[in-house]
Amino acid sequence: MFYKAKYIVLEDRILEDAYMEVENGKIKAFSKKEPEDYEDLGEIMAPGLVDTHIHGYGGKDIMDCEPGYLNEISKGILECGVTSFLPTTLTDTVEKLDKACEIIGKEHEGVEGAKVRGVFLEGPFFTEKYKGAQNPGYMSDPAIDKLKRWKDLSDGLVNKIAIAPERDGSIEFIKEANAMGVKVALGHSDASYDRAVEAVDAGANIFVHVYNGMSGLHHRNPGMVGAAMTTDSYGELICDGHHVSPKAAEILMDQKGRDKVALITDCMSAGGMPEGDYKLGEFPVIVKDGTARLKDGGSLAGSILRLKEAVKNVVDWQIADVFEAIQMASLVPAKSVDIDDVCGKLHVGYDADFIILDENLDLQATYLNGERVYG
After folding, report:
1. Residue 17 designated active-site
2. pLDDT band at residue 202 using 50, 70 and 90 as cut-offs
3. Which residues contact 245 (CB under 8 A, 6 or more apart)?
4. Using one digit for the tens of pLDDT, what is the confidence trace for 265-295?
């Protein structure tokens, strides 16, 4: 099967008026030569988006620990342009995290929508001061035996965990986690600049939703934000216009380079749902005016952002061009957790997981293995 688009976005360039050949669900070739038979899909063909930080969607949450919810989330996020994701947990009891990992481990191969490419444990090794919408009652110092158990329970899928680097034992934990093939992200933390840099030097490679839930950039203590800007690491950004101002997002992109900024959603269960009352973990949340906020105190509680909207936003804000925006929501997040060998780009031999965008960057269709599954 041949598919044509006016623009095909590859990892290093954009092809114009080109064709992509798909055979047995895989990308076989790209060509400028017109084949005898093809389907013209429209304006922009881009890799399926990769969300490496997403808690839930469509009224379902990973921490609900309900059989079947993983599949429902995976199907729901096809309408966000997402074809690969890391189901993301929250700080909770060890028993609840055990159960969440176990369910993902059992069900990941049977999902019908976006493909499960790992598991992101957001917590529980965080700092109370920047708890965000996470329960400080379950926070503790990093423990490698717990990580090993969660990785085992998840069928080996756990490939990213976030910690606050000022907690006792964090430097040794980072080294041991890396040795297990788990990427360590830094967030929900009041760490000093020096401590955060020490953590990156030890092997941490991602800053969780930069600016949010971390010590800020101050001229006498550059803090976590300063470390995110100046180290060779990836920086997550929630570009919904509520978590971070467009100018602050642009500053991070300029400092790090757009090849080191990963657009993520941090979406919770209310994504794709109407305004109203929801829960994030054990906390009641009110969804209104494009935000999800804790009923008690009004803090932002994750987001209801869809990744396709983040791509459109950064272009509309004139802080990234179309090519950069698409890479920041596909290849860059995939690279941050070493899954760019299976997703994040249109490449010969890869699964034909791709999206079609119109000239306004609105999603027209999502494809998995060369088959249209949304749009």
Report:
1. no
2. very high
3. none
4. 999 999 999 999 998 878 889 999 999 998 8
Q: Whats the size of the chain, residue-wise?
A: 375
- Is there a cis peptide before residue 124, judged by omega within 30 degrees of 0? yes
List the structure tokens of 57: 């969607």
Decide: 249 and 319 in contact? Cβ < 8 Å: yes
Question: What is the residue-wise DSSP string for 51-94?
Answer: EEEE-EETTEEGGG--TTHHHHHHHHGGGGTEEEEEEEE-S--H
Averaged pLDDT score across all residues of the chain: 96
| Intervals of CATH 2.30.40.10 along the chain | 2-45+357-374
The CATH number given to 48-340 is 3.20.20.140
Strand partners, 121: 89, 161
Spatial contact of 56 and 271, defined as CB atoms under 8 Å apart = yes
β-pairing verdict for 291-294 and 354-357: unpaired
Check residue 209 and give its pLDDT. 98
Q: State pLDDT tens for residues 71-121.
A: 999 999 999 999 999 999 999 999 999 999 999 999 999 999 999 999 999
The average pLDDT across 287-306 equals 90
Output the pLDDT for position 64. 95
Contacts 24+ apart (CB under 8 A), 35-40: 35/2, 37/2, 38/2, 38/3, 38/4, 39/1, 39/2, 39/3, 39/4, 40/4, 40/5
**Which stretch of 53-67, 273-287, 304-318, 355-369 has the lowest confidence by average pLDDT?**
273-287
pTM for this entry:
0.96
> What CATH fold (topology level) applies to the domain 2-45+357-374?
Urease, subunit C; domain 1 (2.30.40)
C-alpha–C-alpha distance, residues 75 and 57, integer Å: 9
| Distance from C-alpha of 17 to C-alpha of 30, rounded to nearest angstrom | 11
Q: Which candidate, 231, 117, 213, 201, places its Cα nearest to that of 163?
A: 213
Residues 70, 64 contacting (CB under 8 angstroms): no
- Among the options 266, 340, 351, 353, which is catalytic? 266
